[in-house]
Amino acid sequence: MKALIISTNRNIYPEPVMPIGACMAAEAAQNAGHDVRLADLMFARDPINSIRSVIKTFNPDVVGLSIRNIDNNDLCAPVRLFEGPKEMARVIRQATCAPLVLGGAALSVMPRELLAETGADIAVLADGERVFPAVLEAYASGKGPLNIEGAAMEGTAMLKDGVYVSTPPARNKSEACFRPPRYEKWLDKRRYLSMLSAAPMLTKAGCHFECVYCTYKKLPGGVYELMDPAEAAHEIERLSKSGFRDIEFVDNVFNSPPGHAISVCEEVIRRNIRARLHTVELNPLFITEELVRRMERAGFAGVGITAESASDTVLAKLNKGFGVQHVIKAAEILRKSSLPCLWIFMLGGPGENEKTVRETLRFAKTYPKPQDAVFFNIGVRIYPGTGLERIARQEGLLSLSASEMLEPVFYLSPGLNFDWLFRGVESVVAGNLNFIDVRSMQSRHLPRIRRLFRMLGIKQPLWRHTARIRKGLRLLGLEAK
Predict the structure, then answer these.
(1) Whole-structure pTM over 0.85, yes or no?
(2) Percent of the chain having pLDDT more than 90?
(3) How far apart are the first and last CA of the chain?
């Protein structure tokens, strides 16, 4: 089969992200014997004409459309990111009669709604590197993909009594399912590196945490499927030798289970791999001095902690699985290390009030190191099927049906006044140069700053230079107001 995969993500803020899922699906399909082309629209000047052109020249038998995000998760300035792929699907239908297959992270969140919006034939809901080749085989056989594990389509037994039922996610990943693709084969490597993008790397599937807002599809029993640490180090070395010196672990939580993270670091140390490693997915519960020492020696250039709050009340309501004592302990351990840290907080969740907000702001002013950065977001995006949806409905804050929730809808605690919260965050960010918010992450100056940093040889991650960047923008009168 001739398979065309189109990566639709064009969001360059805070940096362009290499489409790991689309590349893995493309490589797996090619390894299965199919003729595959990947059209990455990240840097396309005219994405619609790019789609028309590649369909005309390649004449695919099947078209895959990879959708990364439904919206930008910004309560203050929401953007419907699915509108771009919706228009692209319309253009694809005009240009070819080939079946249209949806994939990407967004499909695991709201598959039925995206199928309806785009008019696609089938959605790949899990493990695209396994499911997409199976879909291609089904089309090649002439039978069609009616009962493929990890995929779903309208008009079949998957829609029962008005309730959407998807097939179970694929299980028993092999090492090949974790192996990072040859990004240089599928993407414009030079463009991504010029924008200081890191190569994404997965080492596991699964998560045993039950955060109320999370859309991550859990494996039964909260188990993990883990990549062998030696194999992970081998792939890191391969990426580094291919020119990707910045490598970011995009596991749902990098340091859970903690023993696996330590083993990966030890293998990197043993091989003496010279790469700059990153992750912004550390859980405070499993931050230890031993882990931090291993990460330093392995070559980590920066880490991020998704603390979300420094209030026990809010952390309990979010069902984070840790308390403030764990957040403080993590901060104390990191203060003794050389690792800069990005602290990530989400204000306005269940149980939030003025007192709990002040607790988080007080932590942010007290515990992070001077070279750390602190990020604040306001409000929590509500997605169907999450604990947060249930809470919002119980509190009378949500009346939309699940099918209407493609429109960005956010939870903001009834114990808070939005204007008070917005002004408070605005004030604290203005008064602390190492603090940032959504507006900072979407500054129109970031692409030029990244190019300048690359010319000057300043290394990733960009956020560790937050104070210097903001000071320079402020002196030039360019900081967002």
Answers:
(1) yes
(2) 77
(3) 52
